[in-house]
UniProtKB/TrEMBL annotation:
Lineage summary: Eukaryota, Metazoa, Ecdysozoa, Arthropoda, Hexapoda
Binding site for heme: 230
Family: Belongs to the cytochrome P450 family.
Protein species of origin: Anopheles melas
Molecular function terms from GO: heme binding; iron ion binding; monooxygenase activity; oxidoreductase activity, acting on paired donors, with incorporation or reduction of molecular oxygen
UniProt protein name: Cytochrome P450
Span of the signal peptide: none
Amino acid sequence: MGYPIHALEKSDSEYVKAHENMIQKRREMYRQRKQSMLSETGSTDNAPHSEEAHGQRKQLAFLDLLLELSEDGQLLSDADIREEVDTFILGGHDTTATALAWMLYLLGTDQTVQERVFLEIDGIMGGDRERHPTMAELSEMRYLECCIKESLRLFPSIPILSRTLTTGVDIEGHHIPSGTNAVIMLYQLHRDPQYFPNPEKFYPDRFLPENSTNRHPYSYIPFSAGPRNCIGQKFGALEEKAVISAVVRNYRIESVHRREDLILYGDLVMRTKGGLKIRIQRRM
Ligand code: HEM
């Protein structure tokens, strides 16, 4: 996946220094924490993933896990760690933010769909609009999940993918040689009427289980597919559910612009000229 050049080109700049300092501080914090855990449990076990205190297994944060892997064996240098963290932050930020913006916009274009989302969420969460949903409650929000999938169908955060062919392939009588750069237009792929009748319509029901069973597995790939697909797919989808459900529990959304008036452009992620504008109104 490519990232904006300006984020990576400052290899000699303050950006790198700031990250190096941050990694050093974090490494120090990590060592201290590990030391205090070992003395709490009386354990002498220094093996990775051995953080156990009060009988409860503690999960390492992503950065701590990378630090642990690089502690003695020097498996990863600080520069390697910085690159891994950059990849996760860049890969997980704009994509999720874009998906959230499109989801809110689309909900605001269709009050009938939005009412169904209200009904579902209120049914699951009850009257208290302030408390956070549990994981079990989030997984019950099936219609909201369909809305998120439908939004990523119409406006995939990453609208274009590319791969270099490592072997030649024959497709319908045409030979495509090894080394060719193949571009996959997700925006177009997701509008194939064979799999998505009336493709421009925002219709979340098409993702209900009974409507998706015979669909070609590669007709819908907002997180790409194969060995280099999105590593944060589940987390990204969960983040979307948590944020959207928190917003619509309290607010009704109305989109300012009609879909036909939007001017789309691809800037690594799918954007519109002038942004996506919505109005929100507190729900009674
Ligand atoms: C709605 C949210 C997201 C969407 C639509 C999305 C989409 C994608 C797509 C299409 C790719 C493949 C790019 C390619 O093949 O060239 C990808 C790769 C990747 N994504 Fe996501 N992503 C999302 C959220 C996240 C999150 C939350 C994280 C991290 C926490 C993440 C981390 C990554 C990484 C590290 C890769 C590169 C994987 C590799 O090359 O092996 N993504 N994402």
